[in-house]
Specification:
single chain, 288 residues, alpha/beta, nine-stranded mixed β-sheet, 8 helices, 9 strands, 29% helix, globular
Length: 288
């Protein structure tokens, strides 16, 4: 379910972390103009950690039923990500040098208008934990009477721990892309990415008594083939909810190849094996 309004630019966030589709509206043209030096508002070089207005927002979907399982939420897409995953569903908002195009005031105005309709707000991206103003934004959402969800790939374990320890997050959708090491760096295209992501997962599990979560892995034809190893590893860590997602081309870079001969059948076989691994809940999100 998606509201008829959407603000900002972007593409098609994946599955339940797949989030709602961000329309390529006039605001996306504003993002493109920023890439050519025509910034629409002053670029904040030193954001204030205590001010939600400093959060750089690339897009806002006013109503989504796919970003937080069983919840109806607004989704805030934060600008910028430190990683360069080839299948990224929001490729247009990765560059952290581009300022946001949606003011925080617009988020608050939406929440005031839909107080009896929405369950909460999901902060997605990009990578939301990249921005130090995120905590202030989450706190403000709580003050307004809404729950807070977070989509993260875990590149900043200490920041994630601070958010969880402060009680600012009610649900986390965490992406684990591969086993640590070369396979992870193949996906994220950054050194030590796997070390940080798996450390973030350990942090998340320290708070599982008070924070609900979903751990998920997204597979694509040119990616690592260690998905079953990943599933077993997170199961052995105590993860209770696990999702297998099949990458799609929508919103990804133009040269991304989402399927090859026999790919769908291979992913289905993986899903069948994971289904019997003993997770309390397993979710399969195919590309179609």
């Amino acid at each position: 379910m998606k509201d008829e309004e959407s603000y900002g630019g972007g593409a098609f966030p994946p599955h339940s972390g797949e989030a709602s589709s961000l329309e390529r509206t006039e605001s996306l043209e504003r993002i493109k103009s920023c890439e050519h030096g025509e910034q629409q508002r002053p670029y904040i070089v030193r954001p204030n950690a205590d001010n939600p207005r400093d959060l750089q927002i690339a897009g806002l979907v006013p109503m989504s039923a796919v970003d937080w399982p069983s919840k109806l939420v607004a989704t805030v897409f934060c600008q910028g990500c430190p990683w360069l995953c080839p299948y990224c569903h929001n490729h247009a908002i990765i560059d952290p040098r581009i300022p946001g195009v949606v003011d925080w005031e617009r988020v608050e105005a939406l929440l005031k208008k839909r107080h009896d309709l929405l369950d909460g707000v999901v902060f997605s991206g990009g990578e939301a934990t990249r921005q130090i103003s995120l905590g202030a934004a989450m706190r403000r959402v709580h003050e307004m009477g809404f729950s807070v969800g977070l989509h993260t790939a875990g590149p900043y374990p200490s920041r994630l721990k601070d958010l969880l320890a402060a009680g600012l997050v009610d649900w986390v959708g965490m992406d684990i892309k591969a086993m640590p090491g070369a396979a992870y760096e193949q996906v994220a295209q950054r050194p030590q990415a796997g070390v940080k992501a798996w450390e973030s997962l350990q942090v998340l599990l320290q708070y599982e008594d008070v924070v609900d979560y979903e751990v998920r892995v997204t597979v694509y034809p040119q990616g690592p083939r260690d998905v079953l190893e990943v599933a077993r590893a997170v199961r052995d860590m105590g993860v209770h909810t696990f999702a297998l997602q099949q990458a799609r081309s929508t919103g990804a870079p133009s040269d991304f190849l989402a399927t090859t001969d026999g790919w769908d059948e291979r992913v289905i076989r993986w899903a069948q094996e994971i289904k019997h691994m003993g997770f309390r809940q397993f979710i399969f999100r195919p590309a179609v």
